[in-house]
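stuck on whats below:

***
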Amino acid sequence: MWPLMRWVSRLFGRRTYPSILTLRPFGLGACRFVVSNDVERYRVQDLGGERMFLRAILSELRPGDVFFDGGACVGVATILAAKRGAQVVAFEPDPSFRRRLEENLKLNDLGHVKVIDWALSDTSGEETLFSDGLEGNSPSLRAVSSRTMTVAVTTRALDAAVSSGELPYPTVIKLDVEGAEVAALRGMRDLLRSLQAPRAIFLETHPGFLPHFEATEQEALDLIISSGYVEAFRRARQREIHYLFRRSPTPIQSEGLNL
């Protein structure tokens, strides 16, 4: 059993699956999720241990914003952002996670959310995605940690999809791509330096995974800062670091959100 699975099994004990879990986070009303194992329950019920990060994202969003959720997983941030009134584009290349994401969107009557099946990168092509499936760690484009299953996925640069009109210009981006941060940011460099650049970028870096991509955390930060952004906050969480970068150093506005 994977370490994550053992930990959450101890946390939740014996449960009956599959089941529907209904949450009412941040005053956004009922949000429903399918859960089929303890790891999914942790991702949903405990917001994956990222409550502060999600609260910051939702505090930034305004009705009518275009929110790009890079690494959407089972859809927690996607669904909360859509409930907040944003137009959401969710990127999830892992087929098992994407099926659950689409199932959760249907449960919440959020058929207008656009789901993208390719992985964010700096090139167009095909790569191997390493995954534990829904019962384990989030997938990665490198064989990091204990991920044992593989699937071929398409990779694309965000710049190409936005400039061609395939996707709208985002106003807020969340990027959580398990070590592929630098490649994903390189693939959106033109966007970040354009007049239609997003006003905020929420970034989760994985310092332990980045060497597998021949990249460093400082490269990721330099790509954003050199595009005209300033760091608004950072917070270490276990083996990851959460950042918020803004086009201007204004504080987060709650916009009436029940925090």
In short: The chain has one domain: 50-246. The first strand starts at residue 19 and ends at 23. DSSP finds nine helices and twelve strands in the chain.
